[in-house]
Design brief:
This protein has one domain: Alpha/Beta hydrolase fold, catalytic domain (Rossmann fold, 3-Layer(aba) Sandwich), CATH 3.40.50. 33% of the residues lie in helices and 17% in strands. The chain has 17 helices and 17 strands. It has helices at 3-15, 93-99, 149-153, 166-169, 174-179, 189-204, 222-231, 257-270, 280-284, 288-294, 313-319, 344-348, 353-363, 370-394, 425-428, 444-463, 499-511; strands at residues 25-31, 34-40, 45-52, 76-77, 84-85, 106-107, 112-118, 125-131, 157-161, 170-171, 187-188, 210-220, 242-246, 327-332, 400-405, 483-487, 492-495. The strands form 3 sheets. Strands 1, 2, 3, 4, 7, 8, 9, 12, 13, 14, 15, 16 and 17 form a 13-stranded mixed beta sheet that branches. A hairpin with a 2-residue loop joins β1 (25-31) and β2.
Length: 517
């Protein structure tokens, strides 16, 4: 089985992961908006699903900042996930591997969250808030890989959230700007959803046994970029105490408000409206499915509006002007899996000839083939070098731990050359064994690696320091030592890993203005 076929198999596994088994017994918790009835499983984990944390962003609330959900009367059933936010449900293999598949149901009315908490134990407990990935256009909190039961069994409350996606979550247009109140957020409505979910946590998590002063925000891919955005957003101050960033796109994206408005005018034209002259009423009357169709080939993500998000996160990080909380950050060994289907020549054309030549010489024999060279260089330009740069810059103001994820399950060794984008997630959640296609196929070594990885995330949530079972002590990052935890067949601490190529890539990104000196 070749690597691409194996990636397709893994994507198919992800695609089936859209829910978890129902629990046998019920339990009730009173929130500030009303009581919710969840379920408790045989292992003593309580789950509460589909809890509204914001008003439905539909009709006149489409493209407005998230508003607190309204109270309800009676006990609200919280035993089933809410729908995912509106998105395409037919994804490519590459998109599926990145986002964890599409949810079974989608809707514009999607702003719900889920809570997993132990039924017994010493309270208050640390809390982790998960922001899913998917390029800001796909994914949902309901996917099986994001099941929080393992965290709850280990004494951590897990909260997972939905947020608006694509053109419904990240959109600007002159009509919206004109109608918005002074200083009201523009463009990044998905980010306002994440902030509102964190406010809900602050107000309600104690009722579930959680400590609102000990909240860790973490996410992968678009969720990691969202976490970085929150670190650079003044409105997030006081809403969380720690952050984990898994495979974030750092050096690109984040259009200005003017750029986003120009894109929005083009979208209006594409759906049959008069471009920049379209009215707010016309825009809000566009069917959601038409906006999803118009999203095709458009980037999506937070907008630097000068209000909610004052500057690009990379600029805030370079200035040291982010929330000063403990930070774990890292990438996978084959982030280049995201460009597996692209023409290598077109990928290499994005880099300067000097950098491509240096990379070819530095990577060595395997990179003599353009496909391998393009994949590795894109990985380091897009993910590895910018992530190391964040670790170095942030370490001046807060504790930072840098990782490199390189553990491949035993049956896939020799098939994959590294860990694809997103593949660390089921190790973090200890959820890989819950997918039928992997049931009974995990070896003792696989299970040990899952346990080690999961324990790092759990200990960081509990204490602010990652202590990993079965792995060497993980030192906080310092630029001079340049140490990284390498999760692999043998977990180890590496010093100055791939420093020559990462230094060269960073120099190019700084010269291009994508990172600061």
């Amino acid at each position: 089985m070749n690597r691409l076929v194996c990636l397709a198999v893994f994507a198919a596994v992800l695609a089936c992961a859209a829910g978890v088994n129902a629990e046998p017994a019920g339990v009730s918790v009173k929130t500030s908006l009303g009581p919710v009835k969840g379920a408790v499983d045989a292992g003593g984990v309580m789950s509460f699903k589909g809890i509204p944390f914001a008003q439905p962003p539909v009709g006149p609330l489409r493209w407005t900042p998230a508003a607190p959900a309204k109270a309800w009367t009676g006990e609200r059933d919280a035993t089933a996930f809410g729908p995912g936010c509106l998105q395409r449900t037919k994804l490519s293999t590459r998109e599926t591997a990145s986002s964890g598949a599409a949810p079974e149901k989608t809707s514009e009315d999607c702003l719900t969250l889920n809570v997993w908490t132990p039924a017994h134990g010493i309270k208050p407990l640390p809390v982790m808030v998960w922001i899913h990935g998917g390029g800001h256009t796909a994914g949902a909190s309901s996917l099986t890989f994001y099941d929080g039961s393992s965290f709850a069994r280990d004494g951590v409350i897990l909260v997972s959230v939905n947020y608006r996606l694509g053109l419904l979550g990240y959109f600007a247009h002159p009509a919206l700007t004109k109608a918005a109140a002074t200083n009201a957020p523009l463009g990044s409505y998905g980010t306002t959803d994440q902030l509102q979910a964190l406010r809900w946590v602050q107000k309600n998590i104690a009722a579930f046994g959680g400590d609102p002063k000990n909240v860790t925000v973490f996410g992968e891919s678009a969720g990691a970029q969202s976490t970085l955005t929150l670190l650079a957003t003044p409105a997030a101050k006081g809403l969380f105490a720690r952050a984990i960033v898994q495979s974030a796109y750092i050096a690109g994206g984040f259009p200005s408000l003017g750029e986003a408005e120009a894109t929005g005018a083009g979208v209006a034209t594409a759906v049959g409206l008069p471009g920049a002259a379209a009215t707010l009423e016309q825009l809000r009357n566009v069917p959601g499915d038409a906006l999803i169709a118009a999203q095709e080939k458009l980037p999506s993500g937070p907008v630097v509006d000068g209000r909610l998000l004052p500057v690009r996160p990379a600029k805030a990080i370079g200035r040291g002007d982010i929330l000063h909380v403990p930070l774990m950050i890292g990438t996978n060994s084959d982030e280049g899996s995201l460009v597996a289907g692209r023409d290598p020549a077109s990928v290499l054309a994005e880099g300067s000839p000097d950098l491509v030549a240096f990379a070819r010489a530095t990577y060595g024999a395997p990179a003599s083939k353009d496909a391998v060279l393009a994949r590795n260089l894109w990985r380091d330009v897009t993910f590895t070098a910018p992530t190391r740069w964040v670790a170095r810059k942030a370490s001046a103001t807060q504790k930072v731990w840098l990782y490199h994820y390189d553990y491949t399950p035993e049956r896939l060794r020799g098939v994959w050359a590294g860990v694809p984008h997103g593949y660390e997630v089921p190790f973090v959640f200890d959820s890989l064994g819950k997918v039928p296609q992997f049931s009974g196929l995990l070896t003792a070594a696989d299970k040990a690696s899952i346990a080690t990885t999961h324990s790092c995330w759990v200990s960081f949530a509990k204490t602010g320091v990652p202590v990993c079972d079965g792995a060497p002590a993980w030192p906080a990052y310092s630029p001079s030592e340049d140490q990284v935890m390498d999760f692999g067949v043998a977990d180890k601490i590496l010093t100055h890993r791939d420093a020559p190529i990462l230094d060269a890539v960073e120099k190019k990104l700084v010269a291009d203005g994508k990172l600061l000196p």
